[in-house]
Amino acid sequence: MKYNSRKFLNKQTGLAAIQSSADIQSSWADITVNISDCNRQVSLDFCFRSVKGYKDQRAKLQLLINELVLLRDAVDVVMSDADFRHSMK
Q: Which of 5, 20, 33, 49 can pair with 44 through a Cys bridge, CB separation 3.0 to 4.6 Å?
């Protein structure tokens, strides 16, 4: 199975993007996530060659997802504070 996806992170301008690719065969998987913003890029690998490796890499991916959700929720709480929003003007 092959999977490729690229999404731009900014709505209007810029080249910030997330690109995911997976090449999964019967005995191995090469999975990569690239996140770029301005002149910085992060590449994350989730490759595995066994069931244990799959479980480890899936846990790594789930931890990243959970942390991003917690970060989003924390920012939402701060932004919902009227005093904080007023101080940003």
A: 33
Predicted model pTM: 0.84
Q: What pLDDT does 65 receive?
A: 97
Q: Residue 12 above 90 pLDDT?
A: no
> Which token pair is 18?
């997330």
Distance, CA of 31 to CA of 64 (rounded, Å)? 15
List of residues 6+ apart from 14 with CB closer than 8 A: 8, 37, 38
Q: Which two tokens stand for residue 82?
A: 């009227």
Would you state the structure tokens that stand for residue 53, as one six-digit string? 């490796």
Token reading at 39: 């002149």
- Four-CA torsion 79, 84, 88, 89, nearest 10 degrees: 110
> Residue 31's closest CA among 52, 62, 51, 61?
61
Q: Over pLDDT 90: what percentage of the chain?
A: 82
Length of the chain in terms of residues written: 89
